[in-house]
Specification:
Length: 413
């Protein structure tokens, strides 16, 4: 029995390596799979045959470029093995995307997020309706959807798909499994939005740098302030976290934050905070949950023309961000910082304060300013982070069960 269990664990590990290689590198031939996984040719043959019979992967042929010789046989994830729905909850909208098992986007639409007093109730009702519609639009039965992957800013439970706190809903928790499980047998997962961004950026950097990649921080600027950190451990795995950066203390007893505390970084660097400073609104004024970008754009135009009060609003925000980042580097290590989110449109106005705040850190004074760069398309990074995480979990689930959700027909034999 022990030998059988050990053999099964090895088979699961090897199957996972094959699926991971196909996810990372795209369609691969037999010899390429052997190279990437470091598995023997015989082992790759057994694993690919198992996965193909289980309808998890499929073959295709690629004609030689010379037009002569036998075509190359390539393996790739089978598109109709199952489906994934990605739900991105932002401050003012919710985006729904339907993806097949190969990672190909099939359908997408966005809806304005309900902002009534009963925000959680309205969100849940809208979410349930939208999930039904996105499946129906592609004529999918609910049991064909293997996973629903949801993201939001805020505090996310580490083990359950429960949103503990968010800038929009405050302390009103949402247990997504509880509100969806009556209609969906799919596995439901929840992630912090900026954590997904950091994961996507980390994978991109590792693809470019290989083993030289060590760590990076992703700073998201907007209505709320988020931070994700990805670090490569000794075994080459990525350890990803999302510290509650926006609600770290910046000024004790300072400006009122959306979380109800005073003096948070977000209370000086969020969109509502910059608007409050620009118009000299009292610091104890209850923050707006959502600030139109157009309002910040007006302030930015004035600041770029030398408007002192508006220059101060962006400098103060940058200083709060820089001070917070200096503490992060002191606690972790010096690492590149990628700035993303809708607030990057004001990067030229923020960077002076950010660098000034960073310069307060001992590690920066000793080792120099960390690399600072901008990633403009945050939403693409969020989606990429969803796919990387969700499809990896799906692959592991299928391998661990020893059968695909579709049906592993060879198990009886």
């Amino acid at each position: 029995m022990l030998a059988k269990s050990s053999t099964e664990l090895v088979r699961q590990k090897n199957s996972g390596l094959v699926l991971s290689a196909l996810r990372q590198h795209g369609p691969l031939a037999h010899t390429e799979l052997s190279d990437f996984t470091r598995l023997s040719s015989a082992t790759v043959s057994v694993i690919t045959a198992d996965l193909e019979r289980a309808q998890i992967i499929e073959k295709s042929e690629q004609q030689a470029t010379t037009g002569r010789g036998r075509p190359r046989v390539l393996f790739s994830p089978r598109r109709d093995c199952g489906y994934l729905i990605v739900v991105v909850i932002s401050s003012n909208a919710v985006q729904y995307s339907l993806v097949d098992y190969s990672g190909r986007l099939i359908d997408r639409f966005s809806e304005e997020r309900p902002r009534e007093t009963s925000g959680v109730v309205s969100l849940v009702a809208a979410l349930r309706d939208a999930l039904r519609r996105i499946a129906a639009r592609s004529q999918l039965a609910h049991d064909q959807v293997l996973m629903i992957s949801i993201s939001s800013k805020g505090l996310v439970d580490n083990s359950e798909p429960v949103l503990r706190w968010s800038p929009t809903f405050g302390r009103d928790e949402i247990d997504f499994a509880a509100v969806l499980s009556d209609e969906w047998s799919a596995r439901i997962i929840l992630g912090n939005e900026t954590q997904l961004v950091a994961a996507a950026l980390g994978r991109q950097d590792e693809n470019k740098m290989g083993g030289e990649f060590r760590a990076l921080a992703a700073l998201s600027l907007g209505h709320s302030i988020g931070l994700g950190i990805v670090r490569r451990d000794e075994e080459g795995h990525h350890q990803i976290s999302a510290p509650n950066f926006g609600h770290m203390m910046h000024v004790p007893g300072g400006a009122l934050c959306r979380c109800g505390a005073r003096g948070c970084i977000e209370a000086y660097a969020g969109f509502y905070a910059m608007l409050r400073t620009a118009f000299d609104v009292p610091l104890d004024t209850i923050p707006a949950k959502f600030v139109p970008i157009a309002e910040l754009d007006k302030i930015a135009v004035s600041a770029r023309h030398g408007g002192r009060r508006n220059v101060l609003a962006f400098r103060q925000a940058g200083l709060a961000l820089g001070n917070g980042l200096s503490r992060v580097l002191s606690l972790h290590e010096r690492m590149p910082i990628v700035i993303t989110g809708p607030g990057v449109r004001y990067y030229d106005l923020l960077i002076g304060g950010i660098e000034e705040g960073l310069a307060e850190s001992h590690v920066v004074r000793m080792e120099g300013m960390p690399e600072l760069r901008v990633a403009i398309d945050e939403q693409t990074l969020v989606f990429e982070g969803h796919l990387n995480r969700a499809l990896s979990i799906l692959d592991n689930d299928i391998v661990r069960k020893g059968a695909s959700v579709v049906e592993l027909r060879d198990q009886a034999g």
